[in-house]
Write a structure and sequence with these properties.
The chain is mainly α. It has nine helices and two strands; from the N terminus they run αβαβααααααα. It is elongated.
Length: 274
């Protein structure tokens, strides 16, 4: 999926109502400096691509680059507003509207060549990211693919699938360590050494018998449970924010109801293995 850059007329309107100031409350950092260089950033309220802050899968690509979904911020406040818990969609929209109401009659205009350069630069950047992850990757055949078309739910399911794969891998290692003593005894037999010679060694001193016992029986289940809980927690947080602006999405509502129950049960009953 190619990320669409904002249209020139949209960027022009954003700057016209900006007063050449960052939209964040109380910030007077200019967006264009005295050399007519752009030092501010065009920011999405709801992210342009999956995985971004406040991404809304129900938006169209045109809606994502529309005037209503964009605001102008300085770099530090762009970073700060990436905290979706502190800055949900409604708060960012309020920040945008309050700022623009102050400069509604502003006659500030960004230099047209600079505006054209900005739009072109954004288009090239996202095309470059796609290209670097595919045809220009240093090891294309071995590259981890970043599929921009994946939704939040696709990513969550992928992470859960990876958790299962990790669990299966750790289980195979557990079984291999469990079989280690038998393998050692077989090796002794090949050399005509009686394995019973080691029967007087207590089990807790026999490293072949208790190989990585704590890692397999304590650390592994605790880490896997922590990961599963975090994934459910992330999904609840995401759906909570998503439904604030998409309250008519019945599938998302149903999913939120189900994962809330799951997280509630985990919060009450999940325990550490000790």
């Amino acid at each position: 999926m190619t990320r669409l850059a904002p249209k020139l007329e949209v960027i022009r309107a954003l700057f016209a109502r900006s007063g050449n100031q960052c939209a964040f409350p109380g910030c007077v950092q200019p967006l264009v400096n005295h050399k007519n260089q752009l030092i501010g950033q065009v920011c999405h309220i709801e992210a342009a691509t999956p995985g971004g802050e406040r991404y809304n899968q129900r938006q169209t690509d045109e809606e994502r680059r529309d005037y209503k979904n964009l605001l102008l911020l300085c770099y530090p406040h762009h970073v700060e507003t990436n905290d979706v818990n502190e800055f949900p969609v409604e708060r960012i929209i309020s920040i945008k509207l309050n700022h623009e109401s102050i400069f509604e009659k502003s006659d500030f205009k960004i230099d047209e060549p600079e505006l054209t350069r900005l739009v072109s630069e954004m288009e090239k950047y996202w095309e470059n990211v796609e290209r670097l992850n595919s045809i220009e990757h240093s090891f294309e055949e071995l590259a981890f693919r970043v599929n921009a078309k994946d939704s939040f739910f696709d990513l969550i399911e992928s992470a859960r699938g990876a958790t299962v794969d990790i669990e299966n891998l750790l289980d195979r290692l557990h079984q291999s360590d469990h079989k280690l003593l038998d393998d050692f005894n077989d090796l002794l037999s090949y050399k005509n050494i009686d394995p019973d010679l080691f029967l007087d060694i207590p089990y807790y001193q026999n490293t072949f018998k208790i190989r990585n016992w704590e890692d397999h029986n304590i650390a592994t289940p605790n880490l896997l449970n922590r990961l599963r809980i975090d994934l459910v927690h992330i999904e609840v947080k995401y759906l909570e924010e998503y439904l604030k602006t998409s309250s008519n999405d019945l599938l998302a509502k149903d999913r939120l109801d189900r994962v809330k129950i799951t997280l509630t049960e985990l919060a009450q009953y999940a325990i550490h293995v000790d």
